[in-house]
Write a structure and sequence with these properties.
364 residues, mainly alpha, two-stranded antiparallel sheet, two-stranded antiparallel ribbon, 47% helix, elongated, binds zinc ion
């Protein structure tokens, strides 16, 4: 946390965004940083997966020899008499039950060639000749009770729709269609379950650098050090007017939408990108301009970068005006924005033959 905001013992900096918001998934308006608890659960979870998937390995036979009791058939065996690391791994079950997470249900058997030996092989019982499937049941007794019959009907319907193939039977990890276990996917699922979404609605655009994305993310949450935000938090004791126009108190919305300098910047961006007239009431409106731009997805994504870099350049100019007493000119802001954004778009987007002339004409 301190590292994230550049804090140290001698350098007390403000934490602008609450940790709970930082750990939200990017899709939910956070930064997707993983809390330790979830990282830990995901890594423990990996052992469950390994236990199932690596059934012939020595370590698994070792665990079975220690923990398996003959009367139970748990997801992973655990003998409570024996303390140690395996206990922590096995007790993950309690977490899954307590949080009612779907993760308990995601390891599924996948029949391939039907040769997996569970005391009875699927291939010994099911014989497929072309379209016809026949069964060679070796019942100790006929299914009698209602429960047994309904299980039997269930089994028949599962088998009749199944087509065997030449792959080996295996365990599959079944989240979002994936078949291989991945810690990062489990983390993502857990974080989704952990968080209720109420994010900034920010769309990450990796054609712009992370620092620009981060800046816009904070801007949309109104967590940047404008005069108003510093005043509100008691860091400065007197409200200060916008340094760019000198007309109004410096709030985020003012700086981005109603400030004279910003409005000239948006006019120029609109004219350059051939956009319909831009009307802005709040910071969020800026990040929606590209959605109404029309044209290809590539064009929209490029306009999105331009909007982000424009916000970034306005902020840079504001800082230079405040801390270096530099004169602010909208032309300088848009000039810097154009040269930065072509640099980033050219190398990250893979748009073919993008050169300066084409860029200046916004010929995309
Ligand atoms: Zn202003």
């Amino acid at each position: 946390m301190d590292f994230f905001w550049g804090r140290s013992e001698n350098n007390k900096r403000t934490c602008w965004v609450a940790w709970d918001n930082i750990t939200k998934d990017k899709e939910d308006g956070g930064l997707g940083l993983c809390p330790l608890k979830i990282a830990n659960i995901a890594l423990l979870r990996k052992w469950w997966w390994k236990y199932r998937a690596q059934e012939h390995d020595l370590w698994r036979r070792f665990i079975d020899a220690i923990h398996m009791t003959p009367r139970t058939w748990p997801s992973v065996p655990y003998n409570k008499q024996i303390t140690g690391t395996w206990g922590c791994i096995a007790q993950l079950e309690n977490y899954i039950i307590a949080t009612n997470t779907e993760l308990g249900k995601v390891i599924k058997g996948k029949v391939g060639d039907g040769k997996k030996d569970k005391g009875c092989k699927v291939m010994d019982r099911c014989i497929r000749m072309g379209q016809i499937l026949s069964f060679d049941w070796k019942w100790k007794g006929q299914p009698g009770s209602g429960d047994m019959l309904s299980e039997f009907m269930n089994l028949l319907s599962l088998l009749s729709n199944y087509h065997f193939d030449s792959r080996e039977d295996q365990w599959a990890w079944n989240i979002n269609g994936a078949t291989e276990f991945s810690v990062s996917m489990v983390k993502k699922e857990l974080m989704k379950e952990d968080n209720n979404s109420s994010g900034s609605g920010f769309e990450w655009n990796l054609w712009a650098p992370i620092k620009v994305n981060l800046f816009v993310w904070r801007l949309l949450l109104d967590r940047i050090s404008t005069a108003y935000n510093l005043y509100k938090r008691g860091i400065i004791h007197q409200m200060v007017d916008c340094k760019l126009c000198g007309d109004s108190p410096e709030t985020t919305d003012h700086m981005v939408t109603s400030c004279y300098i910003a409005s000239v910047v948006w006019q120029r961006v609109g004219a350059w990108c051939k956009l319909p007239p831009i009307f802005l009431f709040s910071t969020k409106d800026v990040m929606e301009i590209h959605t109404q731009a029309g044209g290809t997805d590539q064009r929209k994504k490029t306009i999105n970068v331009i909007l982000m870099v424009s916000l970034w350049s306005i902020w840079k100019a504001r800082n230079k005006a405040i801390f270096e007493d530099e004169q602010v000119e909208p032309g300088k802001i848009t000039g810097e924005m154009k040269s930065l954004s072509i640099l980033w778009v050219k190398y990250r987007s893979k748009i073919c033959n993008l050169d300066w002339i084409r860029w200046l004409n916004f010929d995309l």
